[in-house]
Amino acid sequence: MSARARMLALAALLLPAASARAEPDALFPPAIPGCYIGTEITPTAAGAPPYRKPAVPVTAVRLARGYPQLAHEEQQTRPAEGDRLINLRVIVTFADAGKAGMPKRYSSGRYELLRCTADLCDANNYRVERQADGAVLLRMTGGLFVGAGTELNYATRHLPDGHVYRLIASAMGSCR
Amino acid sequence: MLGGAGAQILVRCCTFLRLGRRDEGIVRKAVSVQREKLYARAMRILPALLIMAMTPPASAAEARPLTDALPPGRPSCHARVVDAAELAAHPDRRVAAITLERSAGDVALERKWGAREQFDDTSIISATLRVRLRGNPVPHSVRLACTQSDDGALVCTSSLCAGGEIGIADDGRGAVAVSIGGTLKSGRFIGHYIHLDDSCEGRAGGPIVLESGDGDRRFSLAKAPKEACR
């Protein structure tokens, strides 16, 4: 085997490893659907304001990034600073879901954008923070209104500032 | 030229200012000229004012998508039934029948929505999607509220189970195309779903959804008599 051939063979062996390292190991990578599901972990000592009107706690939170979100992201202009803009759907189930007249679950708006670095996505009123174990923390930094229903019977709930939810990556089917 | 009340006020002003009859005549003429100028100006803008008054609010006048297939103010029914031979030829298809109905109640709801202030996410079409899945004679249904999408079609969601959505587009000759999921600019298809009942995640066996499997990504529904949607 010539020196040139040995070099090529060595390069071929090293290339996959190098490209794997270069793979962006980022929170919500571009054009890839994702789903996280979890529940609240707000420390009781945190002093976060309680749920009000009604005082009903959250039982499940889903972060969905499927076709509607990816298609919306494709229409955005990438910010000059280099951060990415992503679109997420925050889907929230409250403890009174399923009671007569109550919506089953509430969600954030369709068009909200979050600015992302490798480990953090920020919507200004809430953040998604990547943890070392692969889970994410959804942290309210101002609070988030989620809604359900249509124009004539629209209902909203509020996730108050300071509340924290821990979510783990799940199959897309878990966000349904 | 002056009306009775105006003339009274003018006479009182002239009396108050101790103006003579000649001065009063000059003032009267000046006021009259001003009134004529105002009148002429008002006549110039009157047509514009009339047009503004007669034009319906922008929300109602804006062109609604799919007006041929889903005519405003009139109920509609679109249906597609997959026959046994077609199902046998495509084992990856789960959907055996699918209909989209806008009843009189939906039309009334659309009228109420249309009377409200319009935003990007204001619902404009109300409908019921009914789906019968392969091997299951019982159809499932979901109430849809649809908004206009960026490409001029419709995005429809279930108001009870947030998260899922389908697209509805004009498919020509009065037909509609129902799509689940879609293709990104890279050409990669990304699947999606919509709930087919009200249980959301509350159902023990998992939610009943219409999802974009390999054979269930897009359906062309032809215009049909209302009986086909029942």
What does this structure look like?
The complex is a heterodimer of chains A (176) and B (230). With 176 residues, chain A is an alpha+beta fold. Helix content of chain A is 16%, strand content 34%. Chain A is built from two helices and twelve strands, in the order αββαββββββββββ. In chain A, the strands form two sheets. Chain A has a ten-stranded antiparallel sheet. A two-stranded antiparallel sheet of chain A has the order 10-11. Chain A is globular, with a radius of gyration of 20 Å. Residues 10-24 of chain A have low confidence and may be disordered. With 230 residues, chain B is α+β, with helices and mostly antiparallel strands. Helices cover 30% and strands 27% of the residues of chain B. Chain B has an eight-stranded antiparallel β-barrel. The chains are: A alpha+beta (176), B alpha+beta (230). At the A-B interface, β2, α2, β4 and β5 of A face α5 of B.
Low-confidence regions of chain B = 1-8, 13-22, 56-61
Indicate the proportion of strand residues of chain A: 25-35%
Tally of discrete structural domains of chain B = 2
C-alpha-based Rg of chain A, rounded? 20 Å
Our measurement of the CA-to-CA distance between the termini of chain A, rounded to an integer number of angstroms, reads: 56 Å
Radius of gyration of chain B: 31 Å
User: What share of residues are in beta strands of chain B?
Assistant: 25-35%
> How many domains make up the 3D coordinates of chain A?
1
Summarize the biggest pleated sheet of chain B. Answer: 8 strands, antiparallel, barrel
